[in-house]
Amino acid sequence: MFSTYPGQVVVDHPVSVPIEHRFDPYVDNGGTLLSIAGEDFCVVAADTRQSEGYSINARYVPKSVKLSDKTVISMGGCYADCLTLTKKIQQSMEWYHHAHGKTMSTAAVAQMLSIMLYQKRFFPFYSWCILGGLDEEGKGAVYTYDPVGSYERESCRCAGSASSLIQPFLDNQINFKNQETQRQRQTLDQVLRITKDSFTSATERDIYTGDYLEIFVITSKGVEVQKMDLKKD
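^ that's the sequence the OP posted. Answer follows.
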């Protein structure tokens, strides 16, 4: 330090301040997924666009994975976390098959996924998971999760970037909320039409949803996959 005027001090070197080193391992790769449970079927659908900010990384990156003939999982959020979590689930299901000589039920996979997510609660997987399939009675089942493992069984659920657009539509058409008409189960053809209409409408407003739509139809006969074009812009 040195002084040029009486009573005034001038610092001859810069003031040092703490430097903040920020570490952010997460990224939201966008996309939308939904699942609807029927009386004897379950539909799991998701778009295939992977984006980051205003850039499209790839136009065909499937978000849904067939785990067994009765179970399909769909994930959105950080693609790297979703990929890692899917591998962990498949590995655990393979170990279960070798140890017990049978395939895990949909309810067992749902409980196992909850435990996996909760084990990582201090450094969570940035993933929004929806598990769809048939339960032990052959009825459709949809399990939804938050990133730290809390889950519940529902009749329908949408997650991802366009969830705020699609979920109210599902509440009206599937759950018949705020309607005086008697609630009734939708047929498979009706659910497929609602699913396609949901994504077609969402692509008009959400830039992170688009390109292609993959629909997994789970019945007692197995899993059938349908593909449909969406907006490319």
